[in-house]
Oligosaccharide repeat-containing polymerase
Amino acid sequence: MTVVKNYLYNIGYQILAIIVPVITSAYIARVLKPEGVGANAFTNSIIQYFLLFCGLGIAYYGNRQVTYVRHNRSEKTQTFWELQVIRIVMTLLTYLVFVIFMMFYTRNKVYMWAQSINLIAIAFDITWYYQGIENFKALVLKNSIVKVLSMIAIFVLVKKPTDVTLYISILAISTLLGNLTLWPNLRKELTKINMRTLTPWIHVLPMIGLFIPQIASQIYGQLSKTMLGGMVSEVESGYFQYSDSLIRIVVALVTATGTVMLPHVSNIVSKGDLKQVNNLLYKSFNYVSGISFSMMFGLAAISLTLVPKYYGPGYDPVGPAMMIESIIIVMIAWNNAIGVQYLIPLNRVREYRISVIVGAVVNLIINIPFIHFWGLNGAMWSTVIAETTVTLYQLWCVRNSLSYRILFRGIWKYFISSVVMFIIVFWMSRNFAGTWMMMGIEVLVGIIIYCLLIIMFKAPIVIQVKDIISRKFSKKN
């Protein structure tokens, strides 16, 4: 039941991570206006490239390596400090490069300096360690407090369109504080160590192996915003940001299983039980399919009504863009299950790396013509095609180690249930008043229709949930 508990902790945090931006982004959209939102989105897309180099692939690599040695306190301590030394060195080098970059950069300089606080914050980011030891409770509780405080700060301090710098600073400082809150617990986890015994550089090459796909992923994660800001306008970049933000919030719920399953599966791999690894992947893939199809079609059904009501006037283009981008919810759910929960724990990093690189190359090639001819919607289709390419390549990679018949068992049930739900909810959305109460009714109707249909179809996810509940109930008795 450890996996279930960790998933519930993680999903609880993701729900909070949804509530905070859901509340604040609607407020910020009205206060900062599309121009301020666009300036933040554009400058943040640039700082993300620097953050990527600070990370150097430690998120997945550190998670996995700590999992391998988590039962040996001295080895765990050794691994932690070796990886942390690399992170600090990379942060210092990256910040130096950023300072040099700012000598030549002339656009929104004040915003960029505010964004650079994120570079300092990443030096203290040790979430990978807590994920590796599967201590999601500490990770969730401490970050949750900081998120709530940052939300309060935004409402109290950000009051006018010129407060863009203040808004960026609040977000960055809250990230820094959230990371710092995780350090005091280390006294109970780690032993004393002689820093002279550390050999951090033995990790560099394996980390680069996971760093390369992160670079590629960042290309089609941030490049569209950067290119929209450069080729069209910063306002278009802001539209992309607001569509992408809502989609990624939903994606975070779906991929929460990946964060929990990576250390768990890595632990099973270290014991050599590959049959259990495959069985876990089949269950996880089916679970994320059942969740992601409903979320994809559900969000698409209400997007045209949700956006103008939620963000206010001036954001109408975000609605159609969100309908297009909602497709990636299923694609990311699938490639997260195969890539993060299967290929990485099995140390098949090369295949994972190539899949993301292929997606990035596809995104880069089609971004220019798509954005040139279709602007915002073109960027969205480019993102969808890139994520689909990643998923298809990963499915091809596992063709000899997994059974497609078992992997896709019951998927049609989720698809049909979701399409029926979409038709009914979309019709309601276009024919009734777009009030908050009406949208709440639409969401409730969608959930009821989807749940009834998958129960009627006896979809695998229903059986999985029943098994979990029955096991939990039998333990209590």
Remarks:
- The chain has a mean pLDDT of 84.
- Residues 2-409 form one domain.
